[in-house]
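Minutes, project check-in

Agenda point 3 was the complex the collaborators sent over. CS summarized: six entities, 868 residues total, and the question is how they sit relative to each other. Sequences were read into the notes so everyone works from the same version.
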Amino acid sequence: MTVQAQAAIADADEPRSSRDQILDAGERLFAERGYAGVSMRDIVADTDLRNQASLYHHFRNKRDLYEAVLNRGLAQIASRLAERRSGTLEEVDTNVDRLVDYLAEHPHIAQLIQRTALDGGRQLQRALNVMLRPLYSQGRRAMASLERIWEPEEVPHLAAGLYLLIFGYFANAQLLKTVVGEDPLGPEAVERQRRFLKAAIARLFSIDASPAKERLT
Amino acid sequence: MTVQAQAAIADADEPRSSRDQILDAGERLFAERGYAGVSMRDIVADTDLRNQASLYHHFRNKRDLYEAVLNRGLAQIASRLAERRSGTLEEVDTNVDRLVDYLAEHPHIAQLIQRTALDGGRQLQRALNVMLRPLYSQGRRAMASLERIWEPEEVPHLAAGLYLLIFGYFANAQLLKTVVGEDPLGPEAVERQRRFLKAAIARLFSIDASPAKERLT
Amino acid sequence: MTVQAQAAIADADEPRSSRDQILDAGERLFAERGYAGVSMRDIVADTDLRNQASLYHHFRNKRDLYEAVLNRGLAQIASRLAERRSGTLEEVDTNVDRLVDYLAEHPHIAQLIQRTALDGGRQLQRALNVMLRPLYSQGRRAMASLERIWEPEEVPHLAAGLYLLIFGYFANAQLLKTVVGEDPLGPEAVERQRRFLKAAIARLFSIDASPAKERLT
Amino acid sequence: MTVQAQAAIADADEPRSSRDQILDAGERLFAERGYAGVSMRDIVADTDLRNQASLYHHFRNKRDLYEAVLNRGLAQIASRLAERRSGTLEEVDTNVDRLVDYLAEHPHIAQLIQRTALDGGRQLQRALNVMLRPLYSQGRRAMASLERIWEPEEVPHLAAGLYLLIFGYFANAQLLKTVVGEDPLGPEAVERQRRFLKAAIARLFSIDASPAKERLT
DNA sequence: GATGAATGAGGATTCATTCAT
DNA sequence: AATGAATGAATCCTCATTCAT
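CS then shared the predicted structure for the full assembly.
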């Protein structure tokens, strides 16, 4: 390796701002161990900072830091789902693709979100409303044309189910390694999950399956 | 058990053994706040015990207590799925019914399990293998007759999806309250979720929906 | 091994009374780790007893147990030095022999005594007075005839020195292993120490220190 | 140092660094009560620090603190024995003088070292090798010219004996108070012990043990 | 004589946070 | 913007001891 190359790496590797280093460390650690399982010390240790006090120059307290981490993740997801309109199945598929792409590379975010959800998720409610609304309203519109399939009051359950299917796979990657047998984040497994999701969604949304309404009667 | 018997127990002013009191408190608190979010002090405070030291007479340490709580929950679930054979859709439905019945009354367990899963879930792997095998093998047999629907390598993804759908709803009840609008653990919502699950499973398993294999070609 | 032999061992090995088991465990542990470094739990664990409460049936508290252990050790030493009179060098040698014999087999006692001494040794003062008096008065008498060697006020320093030389070797066996090179409690090392002690005492007490080499021939 | 300078320091109201205060408190307490007999709380209480947590800013844990205390003591002793060469009896006497001077003012160190030795003294082995080597090799050289006195394999026993004689007196001062009758650390007693040590060493090393009385005249 | 359960006090260590530099 | 030092409160767990059985 040339001296320039080394310099380039040194330059490129750690010149992230302290703030970003903290956010990155927080994202990883909060995702892996949860809010209470991570100490400020742990986070600083994952950083070039040498002192916990420095951290408080960037975030007022642990809760603030957690929310900054969470919001950064949520914003990146929201930005990927932003433009939406038609509510066709194809559009749902597009969003699934984008989510799968993103979460496969940032499984920490999926974990973080599920953890926050289990904690009561008050911090998610705003974000989730914004975020799920697309999927949801797309579903709604798709279903508007297909309203023979699901009762209106079942739609939230369906939306929740989609959320669980999509995020749960990535959030639980570590556990699924045992169940699936191979690394659930490897390219083959991710593609398989993508296909599975699309097929499952197609089945949940399609008319061909036996009409839901009949069940009720 | 008669109504009187139940009342007698409720009356008897906590005749539960200390061990059970600890397990109950641990179950509730670990489910609500996660392992790291609960202190031994918190647990003892939910108990007739007057001292943390007493707790260590029953469990060697926090981790041991956590695992005892978890295993008690897993055992209760496993016992409800024990006898199975045919692998027909009806049987899957029966198991869904039992799980929904149990989890609706013990949403803590669903939370606890999802939390443990997010933590890597090593403690789940044995249990989950045992527990999922019925569901799984039922699915497999159901699918054996329906193998036109899912590729064999997709089956684990389907199994994981079923787990997420079933447990996720109850584990995330607190968050879903906003999304669903009403208390997701109220009788109506639970019935709706039960119907949704059965319908979704029917769709995921039925031939009528467009064959999965076609997607692959 | 025959069945009878096994039974004999089983019979002979653990039918020690609970009290003796406790004293033995205490002796070993207090010697190795000191009073504060040993917990009642540790002691009970070295015993057939299954509960700490049982221990309090035999000793009122930790301090009592410690003193019982210590006194048992001191009594055994005192009994070995009991009969004495003449104050000749030969008699001193006899006592050295007996102490070396005993301490080589019970190095714990040497440790225990030195530990107690470092702790201020109030519990030793009675015992030590009794115990050292023989050695001391022997020395005195030996010196009475040799009072040209040591000033009267130096005699206590000499007595202390003898105590340190004799007990210190066995008490610090573990450390001396490095210095001496071999196990200081092995038979050869013990014999060497015995010879060294006698030669040293001879030199400290005699008017004309005879060369050590002559002893060996 | 002038009397004024000493007063100035005493006046200056503990301007010792926190680290030094901790080391000093640790030295005193560990020496008096042993490692297990001292709590971090005790140490902090002997300090200007108001909180146990502050202590951990300077030492990672109790064991680290103990070793720092011990090493500081050992270093001070080693520095006093540093330069040595000839191996004559006079040089041995010089080192004895220095050790006596130091230990008479820092009896804690003698206690600390003997306690560590009783604990197995793994932490002493390096230090002791370095430290004893001078004394030892001096002894060896002195004996080289006097090798008619001790067998080579007896030399380690002699070295151990010298260590026990020198350190033991100061380490056991509290106990010896009863035996000796007066404060063993008072100037008269110290001088007497110094004379005793030199006379004893002379007798242990010399071919013709000159009568002790002559020394006094 | 033995035991299971309980308990108040204290063990070492870590927590998030603040402050002066 | 960063750091060394400090701190009150809390962490998990162990201590010696007692009591009812």
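Noted in discussion: Chain C touches chain D through 59 residues (CB under 8 Å).
Follow-up: revisit at the next meeting once the mutant set is ready.
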